[in-house]
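Private note to self, pasted from the team thread so I don't lose it. Backbone tokens:
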């Protein structure tokens, strides 16, 4: 028999506590001894083994039972106390996704010596581009893998409303559920990761840098230990909670007019794939920008300076010179203008919702 683990919980009278675990909670008895005067019982259920020990020491502990229909379990109670004092928390296995109400603000995040980096999942380096998270509704991260080579990632998925990754520098080899064999995402490419799509980062170039935007800010990441990628099926149009996977390849993209005069953009197709939840565009300068001030009414408008420089003149926040690697969030209704734009200026713009009004004056 292979190794296994079990939780040990003390109890006073074994019989009463055992009846609670089996009759009330649905655990089954795996072992009980000694036969003439039982003092230990081992029960299992919900992927857990519990040893109930009469007269044992230690705290009675907390057990959280994750069930599919909590209202139909234990009379709909959200918490129970076992006879031995163990607190039983009953939670939904898949609660509805909650997106907090947006709290808009002006955010400016500079790169360089003032940037603060931390270590995140799979050893990746993270820089938080929107520290206030707009009330918990959005997260924007600048992510680096300095060394390159195989990435210690695993098949996983995210419980989100929206999530995209833009390759800023270098390349990464990725694989996605039902989207064919692994592919390489080059600098300038972008992917939409629809809710719950299984995926994995396999390998990266030295110095890989990506920009990742998600909603809500605090979302769960789950490992899938059972699914092997790539999958045998190829379903590029598969629906994932109302969205489909997008792989935008910069090398084959076409440029079109942008909402700001003097710029053109390439649309990543995320607007159509999310049915209007978000739009992601890369804009570049094509002529001298118009001397206009703009406003917008989006919930969230995030911009990252991919190359070049400009001066952001946002009313109430002064004129700020921005260089490559700087990002900013402009709250709705706040007038702003782009001035002193360099000829190599290129911007990544992410807006939620996709359809919003731009007003100039």
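Design output:
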């Amino acid at each position: 028999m292979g190794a296994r683990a079990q939780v040990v919980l003390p109890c006073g009278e074994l019989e009463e506590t055992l009846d609670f675990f089996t009759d009330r909670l649905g655990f089954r008895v795996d072992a009980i001894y000694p036969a003439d005067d039982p003092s230990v019982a081992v029960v299992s259920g919900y992927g857990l083994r519990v040893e109930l020990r009469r007269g044992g020491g230690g705290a009675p502990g907390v057990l959280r039972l994750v069930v599919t229909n909590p209202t139909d379990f234990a009379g709909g109670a959200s918490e129970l106390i076992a006879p031995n004092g163990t607190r039983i928390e009953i939670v939904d296995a898949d609660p509805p996704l909650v997106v907090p109400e947006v709290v808009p603000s002006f955010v400016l995040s500079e790169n360089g010596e003032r940037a603060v980096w931390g270590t995140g999942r799979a050893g990746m380096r993270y820089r938080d581009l929107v520290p206030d998270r707009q009330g918990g509704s959005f997260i924007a991260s600048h992510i680096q893998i300095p060394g390159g080579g195989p990435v210690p990632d695993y098949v996983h998925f995210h419980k989100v409303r929206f999530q995209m990754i833009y390759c800023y520098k270098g390349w990464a080899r990725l694989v996605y559920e039902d989207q064919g064999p692994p592919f390489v995402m080059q600098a300038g490419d972008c992917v939409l990761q629809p809710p719950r799509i299984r995926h994995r980062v396999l390998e990266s170039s030295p110095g890989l840098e990506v920009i990742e935007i998600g909603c809500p800010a605090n979302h769960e990441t789950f490992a899938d230990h059972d699914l092997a990628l790539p999958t045998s099926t190829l379903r590029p149009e598969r629906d994932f909670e109302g969205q489909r996977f997008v792989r935008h390849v910069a090398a084959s993209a076409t440029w079109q007019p942008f909402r700001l005069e003097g710029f053109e953009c390439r649309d990543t197709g995320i607007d159509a794939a999310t049915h209007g939840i978000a739009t992601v565009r890369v804009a570049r300068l094509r002529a001298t920008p118009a001397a206009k001030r703009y406003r917008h009414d989006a919930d969230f408008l995030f911009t990252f300076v991919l190359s070049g420089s400009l001066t952001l003149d946002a009313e109430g926040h002064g004129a700020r010179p921005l260089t490559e690697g700087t990002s900013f969030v402009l709250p709705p209704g706040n007038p702003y203008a782009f001035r002193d734009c360099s000829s190599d200026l290129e911007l990544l713009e992410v807006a939620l919702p996709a359809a919003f009004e731009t007003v100039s004056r």
